[in-house]
Amino acid sequence: MKKFASVEDLRAAAHQRVPKMFYDYVDSGSWTETTYRANASDLRDIRLRQRVAVDVSRRSTASTMLGLPVTMPVAASPTGLTGMTWPNGEILVQKACEKFGIPFTLSTVSIASIEDVARSATKPFWFQLYVIKDRSFTDKLMQRAEAAGVDTLVLTLDLQMVGQRHKDIHNGLSSPPKPTLRNLMNVASKPAWCLEMLKVRKMNFGNLEGHVHEINGKQSLAEWTDAQFDPSLNWDDVRRIRDRWKGKLILKGLNDPEDAVKGHQTGADAIVISNHGGRQLDGAPSTIAALPAIVRALAGRTELLIDSGFASGQDVFKALALGANGVMMGRAMLYGLGAAGERGVTRALEIVHKELLTTMGLCGVKAIAEIDEDKLFADDRG
User: Fold this and answer.
1) Is 361 contained in some domain?
2) Are the CB atoms for 247 and 151 separated by under 8 Å?
3) Would you say the pTM of this structure is higher than 0.70?
4) What is the CATH number of the domain that holds 249?
5) What three-state secondary structure class fits 367?
6) Are 84 and 109 in contact (CB under 8 A)?
7) Domain assignment of residue 1, yes or no
8) Is residue 2 part of a domain?
9) Residue 320 CB contacts under 8 Å (≥ 6 apart), including other chains
10) DSSP string of 297-313?
11) Residues classed as catalytic
């Protein structure tokens, strides 16, 4: 396999291999992409304190996330249409994460179904749930997840409606791709992707196909899904799901201290600070900028995870220093997947792990528990 030294190397390779509409779906934000860019740029602006003459010969990234031992405090974020980046993509990412020792989260709008992933998994994984207008279908998804051995539900709250994503609109994003001349020309320019996809021919939403009966011949699963996101979603719905779900519950998509406190009060086991990777409300702050105020508001009362814009071990270190208990990554996994399938995902995890270990050593840190605000320059602390 080609030598990939960074997640950026994997991104460039994925860009060459994956058709434009699916690459752009991964590597883009909403409206002007201001928040999408801020997620990464605000992380870059945080400065680290380099320390010397500290014995860091024995360092460990081992930690826990929701009581689960992990190789490093990183989990795979739920990402839609993963199976369009590489065939059986969700299954490949799950396998790579399980072998590496970190949690994997399956999206509601995945190509592989809950049952598909469960058949390949040997340990419980996390499932991300969207609340849609058809509440009975939402309940059935939870039942299917429980039956498949899912032990942690990640309830996403920031997609009551789809943000205006210009690249997806221009590309006419759909799964499978609509047979327009533009799409056919682009797909034809990616022969390796075409050959792999022909082996499986699975291009629809696995968690919906065969389970949604209201679709007519003129409406695709994607169109049905977009119409089903529910702007009436409220905290009563969250409490109802908390009462029904027997396992651990994570609330994802919170970016405000008041919402974080309300989320904790529902009985959630953890909260994920997220702006959906900059794909929802453009103009919202980056998650790393939002983190310190939420840490203060929660005061250690619940486990706090963060995602959106994290692409390196240094990014993980900075989030931990500012008070997060762990980081969720989506695009980094997809870049690895698009570059080289399961091996690419494993390589992405290896890169992030090595970068985290190296950063710990250069900052005089031996264990995850030692990472705190003192490892940042004073002006960059929360």
Assistant:
1) yes
2) yes
3) yes
4) 3.20.20.70
5) strand
6) no
7) no
8) no
9) 73, 326, 327, 368, 371
10) HHTTSSEEEE-SS--SH
11) 276
